[in-house]
Amino acid sequence: MNAQASLIPKLVALAIVACVPLSGESFYIEIVGKVLVMAIFAMSLDLLVGFTGLVSFGHAAYFGIAAYAVAILSPEYEAANLWYVLPASIGLSALAAFVIGLFVLRTKGIYFIMVTLAFAQMAYFIFHDTPLGGGSDGKYLNNKPSASIFGWEPFDLTNEVHMFYFILAMLVLVYLFLARVLQSPFGRVLVGIKSNEHRMQSLGYFTFRYKLGAFTLAGALGGLAGFLYAVLFGFVTPELLSWHESGNVLLMVILGGMGNLTGAIAGAFAFEAMREIFADITKYWQLLMGGVIVAVVLFLPGGLAGVPGRIKRALQGGDAK
Amino acid sequence: MDFASFLIQTLNSLQYGLLLFLVASGLTLVFGIMGIINLAHGSFYMIGAYLAFVLTSATGSLVMAIVLGIPLALVFGAFLEWALFSHLYKRDHLEQVLLTYGLILIFEQLRSLLVGDDVHGVAIPAFLDASIQLTEVMSYPVYRLAISVVCIVLAVALYYVIQRTRLGMMIRAGNDDRGMVESLGININMIYRVVFALGVALAALAGMLAAPISSVFPNMGSHVLIISFVIVVIGGIGSVWGALVAALIVGFADTFGKVLVPELSGIVVYVVMAVVLLWRPEGILKKG
Description:
The complex is a heterodimer. Helix content of chain A is 71%, strand content 1%.
């Protein structure tokens, strides 16, 4: 498929999503806004899991750190300036990812999964137990940041439609940015590390530095998602850092098929849609969700992304392996 | 801190560490031998605690509940291994994470359907419901001592089984080299099933023993799961003795952390893990 042919469906999907605020229903604007935030989050994790081959099970930490950073950095009775809190929150997440990366990237395989989880849990307890985070109730963000530049305000985040388009713009930017990064020599090395780290090392690359770079970048972009989440909903709780969130975002990446940025976005939509639909049918939605996950692993080893290929093979009469 | 309270905290640390060892030993064996990352291991602890609650209500005694509960847990473990985990051996870690994550959702929801979301207490058996007077104001409950004793007995039994029996020999061999064990004509799948069922039973037993102290509540497995991960990482994957040492370190760090730096108590254990990782990325004791 050439680049232009694959561009059209993406633009159509983007146009459809961009039409959501026309419905005028706050409920839909908020819920689709949330899905877009999760899509950014899923793309940031995909950089690690899908492209670099690092299965992080603690990615919610960076989401939560930036979310808390907005709530803590904003003054209580007035709005903070967006152009200060946005980079500051993302910077804090990136810093945390850098420091944690120094530790966790010393490990591999199962260790890496467990150690990323343990560090995320440490971050969870920092916000849960110390006065910094306001305990298990979390913290309110009373005033959404203002986008004012020397008195000129290009948009207003307290307006739900402006907020929605702000998130959508960020999603497109992150997508284009990551697509560019993956085309760059840096991105090529990451993909090389995924397929064979030893080979990259013998080619003379200091793979640790590249992995640390990817880990920090993923943390920063996860932080952007957390920032948007906090501004969208106006409050943060320690649960944002819980390992269930790390599990959910991992699920989104896998549902969409790893190593595929559009897939990560689709995975976020599929996951949230599943959650909404199951929660609508029954209050025991976790049972259905768990059942679907178990069934996908047992019967669809390639994730949902592998389904079209299976159908194609079945139709062509070959053996569908 | 005076001597009596130091003594009490030491005993508490031992008891907590030994209890964690029961959970972590199964986890580390399943990691080491089968190469499976099992997030649902904490759920077995939760299931054990709820079994203790339900069976104690039915039979009137925790001892009866444990006697009935252990075979149930063994059968449950063997069934899970047969139905689900046996399909995971050659899969990617990511898929193992997913499947076992799905299992947690299912177990928690079933728990909510069958027993509800309330917090329940479990009575301490009458013959253990006493305290040892240490000073005029401080005493130590006999039940906690009994837990420590049971755990020590089990640790010794586990040592005997693994180091001195034929089954243990096969388990150790499977830990080192699966292919070699298979080609020697040993049914590795049977060993996997036994080890998995044993791990489930140990975690469930830990839950049953802990039920009277910690009470029984939703999601009680997830905290234990993550602490057990930390123990496995500190001790080294697949090393039962590493798990024992690490569990005791974690028990002491957590208990004394709560007394000495209450605000940071949640973090102490993870700091210990970070230090160990810097010092020895493969854990204190390597496989073996």
